[in-house]
UniProtKB/TrEMBL annotation:
Pfam entry (one): WG_beta_rep
Keyword Cell membrane: no
Residues spanning the signal sequence: 1-20
InterPro entries: WG_beta_rep
Protein name per Swiss-Prot or TrEMBL: WG containing repeat-containing protein
Keyword list, A-Z: Signal
Amino acid sequence: MFRKSPLLVLFFTISSFLQAQTYEVYDYDMNLKTRLVYKSISLLSESVKIGSNEEGLFLLSNDFKPAVNLEGDEIYQFLEPWILVKGPNGIGAFHEYGQKVLDLEYDEIETYFNFLLARKDNEYWIYKRGKGTTTYLGELESAEITNVGQIIAKRNNEYFLPLGENPDETFEYLEGNEGEYILVKTQTGFGLINMEGTIVLEPVISELKHNRGNFYYGFDQDQYLLIEGDPINANIRYNSFHKISFENDLMLEYIYGKLRRVMEEDGILLDTVGMTEVNRMERDLYQIKFRDGKLGLLGKKGWIVKPTDSLEWINNGNEGYFAAKKNGAFGYVNKEGSWLITPTFQEAGPFSEHFASIKSGLYSGLINSNGQMVLSPEWDEIKAFQNGWGVGKKDNKLFLINASGEIKNPEGYNKVCRTESGQFLVESNEKVGLLSSNGDIILNPEYDFLKHERSNWVLAIKDSKSGLIQEDGEVIIPFDYEEIIIDNQNRQILVKSNYEPVLMVEQEPVSKKKKRGH
């Protein structure tokens, strides 16, 4: 009979014990509340907590106790309110309240607020939360959820809407977009379908394509159409028998072959004679040239810079200064097109807080709103000012620059990133630090990772260990832990560490040999 060795049993027990990990839970006053034994804990949202232990992957209760077995190996994706879980056989789905809605057997799952679309090979299913039912759609060439909550499905080169009013009705083509309407094509032409799946523009238009929002550009019976979607009946907002071109978010109308109008989604933005060229600079911003040599900048509400004959090129600006070009050199004009700063530069950037980066020769400098040079052109790049500070690049180093042209950090950094609070995360020699909004050092660049938590707490990693420190450098939680998690909802902190038990093994007494004769 096989007799187990006590030391062998003890070895396996201790080996398993050493693999376990514990989270110490503290309140915000650093009082120890409890200890939790998990391999890992993740906070997916303020209310969704996930824990992994030797028994599996769990959705945790508010006090971090296993509440629902998620039956998988890892969280594939969290798309509120849906938790997608990956297991050996595929992906499944749970609601954040703990209800399992799809088994872990699918190749792909798309989510919407109140339903899911699941695929396995070329078969598709829909789970509807309101009814709690899963419906088989069959074998499809493709299926996708639109942003209005309809599903566009394709089978045998025909399209249909499984969630529409008539799910059996087929179409030649269906297309979703950023608006609230679906583009539809039948044998009779193009039309529009609303979010309920009802046709609101009969499919009789020869050509139709999405413009932006709920607006569409079309052509039918020798006339051009600008159409706005509507839940009941789509509206033709503008029609013309003259040509309207539509390309790169730019619509232009030509009358008898001559450029006459700049169009917007539902009508005329600019109607004037003498235009020869319109260039889209960015969304709702157009550079317009005229036959008499004038050049202007047009925006959504009219002229941003009035047409003038002294400009060759112009761009959007800030603080009343617009970068413009004349005779191959750049300077700045006002909204009337009059020069504020003489064109003498190779490049001119936008003004920010009364400063602008310019380029003279191969290098960048900094000028103020009077055109005076604050920093001579010896920089590779100077980024826009914000809250009194700009960032300059020279010799592959980044420097903070103030309004006087003073360099705050003469040693320079490899990276400088502004935080939402106006501070700066900096990196030097692959270590990160923190600067105040005035550029003063809060934390020297000696950390592997820094992240602000609450007002003055900084979560940090140093030498592969996590700690929690204050902005003044005072250590709140020492750098002795594998991970630190801030649970703001419950005003508590979880710190993760390995068990390090002290093992005491009692040795069996050595038996003495009996003496001869006894």
